[in-house]
Amino acid sequence: MGSTSTAIICVGLVALIGIGGVAGFYFITYNSLVTSRWDVDFKYQNIITQYQRKYDLIPQLTDLVISYTDQMTEWITNLTAMQTEWLEILVSGGVGDQANASDELDNYFTLFIAEAETYPNINFDTLWVNLMTEITGTENRITNAKLDYNAAINAFNIRVSTIPGSFIAPSLGLFPGMFTPW
């Protein structure tokens, strides 16, 4: 082989390596931009997921309060009726009536205590605290998801604003500030 054909082969190899390098550079940058774009969308969906979780906890809270309120309303109504009956007996009744009313009240207190111990929602404080812990935890998850989302937007903006992303991003319709931070 002559020096001319060696020179042509060398120029061809250099051109091929150069074209391959430019193509590789383009594809790596392109993939980085697309990944960054999808990361922003993913982080946004995490925020929505946490808000949905919070929304899903509301019926549990409502059910807990209603259940507890219904039970307490029944107990308060019965206790108030017994108190009224006791006061009436004190004014107009005799000792026997007072003893009967006292026994009836004792029986109701025994029933009240037994039902309170077995009624699952009587542990309102514990259930309330647990549910509020869930809600607070969800609020923390929402805050963290927002921070992650804003960080993803920041990383995206940097990628599309700096070289090499700034050369390729416009052809993909990507530009800094296209996402609104939370």
What structural keywords apply?
182 residues; mainly alpha; 86% helix
Describe what this molecule looks like in 3D:
It is a single chain. 9% of the residues are buried. The protein is rod-shaped and about 135 Å long. With 182 residues, it is mainly alpha-helical. 86% of the residues lie in helices and 0% in strands. The mean pLDDT is 84. Among the domains are: 71-122; 123-176, no CATH class.
Largest sheet features:
none
Radius of gyration: 37 Å
Distance between the termini: 67 Å
Overall structural class, as computed from helix and strand content, comes to mainly alpha
Rounded mean pLDDT score: 84
Share of helix among residues?
over 70%
Which percent range describes the beta-strand content?
under 5%
Report low-confidence residues grouped into runs of 5 or more: none
The number of E-state strands comes to 0
Order of helices and strands: HHHH
Question: Count of DSSP helices?
Answer: 4
Shape: rod-shaped
Summarize the model shown:
The chain has 182 residues and is an all-alpha fold.
Describe the secondary structure blueprint for this structure.
Elements: H1 3-92, H2 95-118, H3 124-161, H4 165-168
Helix pairs in contact: 1-2, 1-3
